[in-house]
Structure formats: structure tokens, C-alpha cells
Hints:
By secondary structure, the protein is mainly alpha-helical. The chain has one domain (about 5-140). The chain is built from six helices and two strands. The chain has a two-stranded antiparallel sheet with strand order 1-2. The protein is globular.
Amino acid sequence: MSPILKAHFADYAAFHGTPGNKACHYVGIPLIVLSLFAMLSAVPLFAVGGFTVTLAMVLLLGATAYYLTLDPLLAVLMLAISVASIAVGQHIPVVWALVLFVVGWIFQFIGHYVYEKRAPAFYRNLAHLLVGPLWILAKATRRA
């Protein structure tokens, strides 16, 4: 784990100390990630040899490149989860993906304003929008 990721995780953890907030994030963040990939999978960009590249794939590429600079093992694990999310997300109608996206954010804000009594970390640092999913994965794999 890079020193940058350690610093991100320490900062992120400072905004996620209560059990209620953590529980809301363990539900909300995966819902947001899945629904975001589902919605972006519906946005074709171009075709290459009969294969359609979607906006979800571009997001995946960018996020994976960033994650590789922070922790290669977590990056590979997140890549696998993201590819699975895209595969599943392609079968979720956009309207339902939007509903899941909103529900995921409701969980986030309940966690912060009901349990944590503190604004989300990404209000201060937009990088936390990408750090959050990695933090959940790191917790799940006991790497954080």
C-alpha cells in the first residue's frame, strides 16, 4: 500500500468512525458503484471490431489506472469486481439503476448526517469518491 493510499485511508477513516455510518457505507457504496456502471454501460462510445466500448469501460480504465498507483493488489481485486459489476449492470434497466443510485446515496447521507454527524469526506477532497470503494474493499479483505 502506497503512502498516498495510507494517507487517503487515514483521512477517509476520520469521517467514518461510527458503526452506523460504516454500515450505511457498506450498503450504499456497492449500490452506487453497481448502479453507476449499469447506467454508464448504456452509453456506447464507439465500436472496435464489433465490440462496443461504453462509458462504463472508460471509467473502469481510468479508475483502475489510478488504483494501480495506490495499491496493485487492491487495484486488481477492484478491477475484477468492477468487471462483474459491468456484466451484471448491463442487465439492469437504466431506470432501476437510477433508483439504486439514489438509494445508495440516501444510505451515504443517512450514515453521515444521522450517525456520524459530519459531512462526507468528498466535500473536502473529491478523490474520496474513488477512495471510498477502495476503502470498503480494503476493509472486506482486511488490507485496511
